[in-house]
Amino acid sequence: MNDTAFLQKGYEISTDKEKLDFDAIYGYLNTSYWAKGMPVEKLKTALENSMCFGLYHYGAQVGLARVITDKATFAYLCDVYVLEAHRSIGLSKWMVQTLLAHPELQGLRRWSLATADAQGLYSQFGFSRINNPENWMQIHTPYKAD
């Protein structure tokens, strides 16, 4: 399906942060394997300081993709989801295509992401396992679920 087909079915992708439905986003992310237990204030700050690609169906938030970036050299893709009732029609592919084509994200030297289960999706867009993972380091401090 292409942009027009999705638009005709009532879907829209927007980077307008005014459209974000925080309660819907938090409701989903707080059940996800990657963000469970994230404090509300942390999510608010994360959304404020990221490029957010909201996915809407007739105005209701049904998905999200968040990009953390300096808009010059690096971007980290995270918090990508589509609600269960809207899956299997290509919306996640459409979101990834849309964000990769965004004018402010062109010419970046590196994109990065972490996923436990969606390698097949991202590999279609050129993402691959990290070369020389031994060069990468992290500090990981998981959220403690209440």
From TrEMBL:
UniProt keyword list: Transferase
Domain N-acetyltransferase: 11-146
Transferase listed as a keyword: yes
Keyword Transferase: yes
InterPro entries per record: Acetyltransferase_Butenolide, Acyl_CoA_acyltransferase, GNAT_dom
PROSITE patterns (UniProt xref): GNAT
Pfam families on file: Acetyltransf_1
GO MF: acyltransferase activity, transferring groups other than amino-acyl groups
Name of the protein this chain belongs to: N-acetyltransferase
Organism: Mucilaginibacter psychrotolerans
